[in-house]
Amino acid sequence: MGLSPYSNPSDAGILCMILVQTAMSISFMKENLLSILHVLRVRMASWDEYSNQPATAEPFESREIPSRTYMEEFRSLIPTIRYDSLSCTAKQDCSVCLVEFKPDAEINRLSCGHVFHKSCVEKWLNYWNLTCPLCRDRMIAPKETQENTTSPM
C-alpha cells in the first residue's frame, strides 16, 4: 500500500467535487452560449459539413437568409400539388408540424419521396435548412447533377 498524498480522506472528496462542479459549470456556459447563438440565428456547422462542401466565394453574411432566387428555384423544381392527387391510401402526418394532411392540402413532394406541407417546407428553408427534414438528402441537387440527369447520353 502506498501513502496517500492527502492529509485526510475528506480532502480527496473535496477535490473530486471541485472538478465535477467545474465541469458542470463549463457545460452550462457552453449550453447558454449555444442558446444565445441560436436566438441570434448564428449556425454552428459541424466538421462533416465542412468536409463535404466546397469552399464558396460568398461571404458568410450573404448566406444567412435564403435568397429569393433560391426559393424561386425550389418552387420551380419542386411544384406544389394537392395531397389528394397522391395515390397514397394511408393517412399521413407532416413530419415538420405533425398535423395530418387534409385532402385539399398544398404539399411538396421532395426528390427523396418525403411529403410536407408547402408552408412547412418554406419555413424550413427560411431557417437555411437545405436538406430534407427527415433523411437530410439535398432538396435541390447541385447544378452538375441536374445537368447530368437532364442531358441525353
Automatic annotation (TrEMBL):
Listed PROSITE patterns: ZF_RING_2
Cited SMART domains: RING
Organism of this sequence: Helianthus annuus (Common sunflower)
Name this protein carries in UniProt: Transcription factor C2H2 family
Residue stretches making up the RING-type domain: 94-136
A GO MF term: zinc ion binding
Record keywords: Metal-binding, Zinc, Zinc-finger
Pfam family, one: zf-RING_2
InterPro entries with a match to the protein in the record: XERICO-like (IPR044249), Znf_RING (IPR001841), Znf_RING/FYVE/PHD (IPR013083)
Lineage: Eukaryota, Viridiplantae, Streptophyta, Embryophyta, Tracheophyta
